[in-house]
Write a structure and sequence with these properties.
16-stranded antiparallel beta barrel
Length: about 375
């Protein structure tokens, strides 16, 4: 019989966690060596945005910027879709984590402003072994290379992906993973013939750094190019240095297509002369963070990111460069309340030379559970 149905004594305690207030349930029984600890967390977040040049919706999406259009179409929006909820269950070396938010689309702004619940994380972990959906191993292990922004959309060139995977993490800082593959070959039906294989080595401290490598394999399965296959190798490296009450960070990605934020704006590969040709890119993101201290623990971040694609096999309307810059200030007037203001600009240019940009003004309010 499942342990949860056994008639056991139950002790319930309430404790305050760093992310907010969580409920901890301790289920104990005679002979049990470990206790099951359940934590509930998340936050409520509302964003107020004003787009100066183009209406980009509730989240800044640089790849949606219109090019070749000189008309200004300002837009004001308010949304609470980033709100999220998570549950963590831990018993000895076993951990289970599930999290969702409400950015899955649906609803309307006329009446309900509802949003569909969307899965973010769902994984189990036993010691060094993790199985399930969470942040890609190609990403930032200690989150020192991913600049904090008030907007839900991240800076160009940052590493970003969540997906199902099997990961083994060593005590020496090395992570090895196989992850769900997904690529786009323009105009072709294809299959991913192997998992994405990722290696990462990271160290954390006053000087933090990491390197990573990615291997992908895909094959065309229909049409005149049936049977054609190709491999892709990606690389990432980054470092962060604490300087007094601030820090500076820089990261570069090479040929990692969808693992780079906006790397997915162009196809992963195209067919040229009967051969699959991968689309190369170089992506760089740099940031400076300053902790101003004080009673409200103010923190500011300035971040610049750019993705530049190799244009040899791209079409005229594909993207050549996508760049963003964010400047923000966040503060905590109360323990579980964070306010933030931000100015951001996104700029894109296509292979044919057409370009466009947008400036966004934003205020965000987050209330942790």
């Amino acid at each position: 019989m499942n342990d949860i149905f056994r008639p056991t004594p139950i002790a319930i305690a309430i404790k305050r966690l760093s992310l907010g207030v969580a409920t901890t349930a301790l289920l104990t029984s005679v002979g049990m060596a470990q206790a099951l600890e359940v934590e509930v967390g998340g936050y409520v977040k509302t964003d107020i945005t004003y787009d100066v040049d183009q209406d980009l919706g509730t989240t800044l999406l640089a790849s949606a910027i219109e090019t070749g259009n000189t008309d200004s179409t300002p837009s004001f929006r308010m949304a609470s879709l980033q709100t999220r909820f998570n549950i963590t269950a831990t018993e000895g070396p076993v951990k289970t984590f599930v999290e969702g938010d409400f950015t899955g689309g649906g609803g309307n702004e006329t009446i309900s402003n509802s949003g569909h619940l969307r899965l973010r994380h769902a994984y189990g972990q036993v010691g060094n072994l993790l199985i399930g959906q969470t942040w890609t191993t190609f990403g930032d292990k200690y989150w020192k290379l991913y600049p904090a922004t008030v907007d839900f959309g991240g800076p160009a060139a940052a590493t970003f992906a969540r997906q199902s995977q099997v990961r083994w993490s060593t005590d020496m800082g090395l992570d090895i993973a196989i992850e769900n593959p997904e690529n786009a070959i323009r105009g072709e039906t294809h299959t991913d013939t192997s998992p994405d294989i990722i290696l990462r080595y990271a160290r954390s401290g006053a000087f933090s750094w990491q390197v990573g490598a990615l291997f992908q394999q895909f094959e065309i399965t229909e049409g005149v190019n049936d049977g054609e296959s190709e491999s892709n190798f990606g690389f990432t490296a980054g470092a962060s240095l604490d300087i007094g009450s601030g820090s500076v960070s820089a990261k570069i990605n090479s040929n990692s297509n969808r693992y780079t934020y906006y790397g997915w704006s162009n196809p992963s590969a195209v067919v040229s002369g009967g051969r699959i040709e991968t689309i190369d890119h170089t992506a760089v993101v740099v940031a400076y963070n300053q902790n101003w201290g004080g009673p409200s623990n103010g923190v500011s971040t300035v971040a610049f990111g750019t993705v530049e694609f190799e244009d040899t096999y791209l079409a005229a309307n594909d993207f050549e460069t996508i760049s963003t810059i964010h400047a923000n200030y966040r503060w905590n007037p109360y323990e579980r309340v964070t306010f933030g203001v931000e100015v951001s600009n996104a700029d894109v240019e296509r292979i044919n030379g057409a370009d466009g940009d947008n400036t966004r003004l934003q205020f965000g309010a987050k209330f942790s559970l």
